[in-house]
Amino acid sequence: MAEKIKVTVYSTPTCPWCEKVKEFLTENKVKFTGVDVSENPAKAREMVEKSGQMGVPVTIIVKDGKEKVIVGFDQDKIAKTLGI
Fold this sequence. Notes:
Layout: E1 5-11, H1 16-27, E2 33-36, H2 41-51, E3 58-63, E4 66-71, H3 75-82
Parallel strand pairs: 1-2
Antiparallel strand pairs: 1-3, 3-4
């Protein structure tokens, strides 16, 4: 059975590292949900609660029921977590 992976990227429109995360995921054909925290204060609070960080990007990867929080554009950590 294929494992279920859910990826969420918390970002802002003016963040170049956020774009890099999204480009990396897109290039690797990883579906993700983008959340613009500049437009959504509730989601911004959710991001801070999950990551302990105010800065973006924050990528949340849920794989096999386990949630991994990756702050910033850590390509190696994202790739390793996703198995790509």
